[in-house]
Amino acid sequence: MTENRTGSPLIDGFGRTIRYLRVSVTDRCDLRCRYCMAEHMTFLPRAKIATLEELAIITERFIARGVRKVRLSGGEPLVRRDVLQLTERLGRHVGHALDELTMTTNGTRLRDHAAALADAGIRRLNVSLDTRDPALFRHITRHGDVAQVLDGIVAAREAGLQVKINMVALKGLNEDEIAPMLAWCVAEGHDLTLIETMPLGAIDEDRTDRFLPLTLVKERLEQRFALTRDAAGTGGPARYWQVNGTATRLGLISPLTANFCDGCNRVRLTTEGRLYTCLGHDDQRDLRAALRDGGIDALDAAIEDALRTKPRRHDFRIERNAAPAVARHMSVTGG
Ligand code: SAM
Ligand code: SF4
Description:
Blueprint: E1 20-24, H1 52-64, E2 69-73, H2 83-91, E3 100-105, H3 110-120, E4 124-128, H4 134-141, H5 146-158, E5 162-169, H6 178-188, E6 191-196, H7 214-222, E7 227-230, E8 238-243, E9 249-253, E10 266-269, E11 274-276, E12 284-286, H8 287-308, H9 330-333
Parallel strand pairs: 1-2, 1-10, 2-3, 3-4, 4-5, 5-6, 6-9
Antiparallel strand pairs: 7-8, 8-9, 10-11, 11-12
Helix pairs in contact: 1-2, 1-8, 2-3, 3-5
Bound molecules: S-adenosylmethionine (SAM) and iron/sulfur cluster (SF4).
């Protein structure tokens, strides 16, 4: 089988080894979070979506070439009908060539799928939860029901999955909920990662109005919680703090106030089968076309080509009336 052929490690033009692939399995979503999408989003026509087989072959090629961690994301990964088959197939590599298969989800469908995800080999999930307040949740997501997500988190725990909460810090919207969210995470035994809103894709609002620097958030949290820096790196964008005396780790993803690109070990595959080597740039290679035209050798060549031009860093800025850093939304590249 093609996926068993080994290949040379994935090293970019700045000597960074790629060990982490994020796969956006769909650009569609059942929510419309205000900072992520416009209310009337246009999604890709189904004909443009890579098949499960294509996504699996491409992902397995990355695994054969040294990727140790795969995250399935979206859009909302659990709205794609065949995502569980993909999860099961990739899950077979866990404990062998793959250290971890994981997923980022909005949690609305977790009650139905948590057990199957655990059976497939997933051990940890990121669940996005910007507030536990039902009315505010409905406002931020434009129509979501927070009870469904909270129940999904319970289902995930029942299935033995470890849950990390992702929360985008939004000025004037959920900023008063950040400390209570951390307290809740401590009580429930979840880790919490806070994220600065990033200028990805056009939305119906000006992101400047909602931008809340995490430097300020951290100062506020320290009035209530004792935090100790945890220097253990993940090669990812988050910096971590232990909440003293608890099992909870606080992660801060601050692309605007603290650039994290030097140790970047990741690339992103879209649901169309395109490879983006940086969240903040438009360069991409069509890996599905390469695979269709020339099989694994052409796929390898396209991956090499993409890695050679992986940018050194993103250049995010949030400025009033400025165009987004890139036109595509986080839901296309997989957050
Ligand atoms: N639908 C799933 C979810 O919400 O978890 C997975 C995809 S979503 C794009 C992944 C993560 O990106 C979520 O935690 C979401 O809050 C975050 N996100 C989306 N748009 C963002 C933006 N413009 N800036 C910062 N974070 C964003
Ligand atoms: Fe959907 Fe996730 Fe974007 Fe919210 S953040 S609209 S749940 S993709």
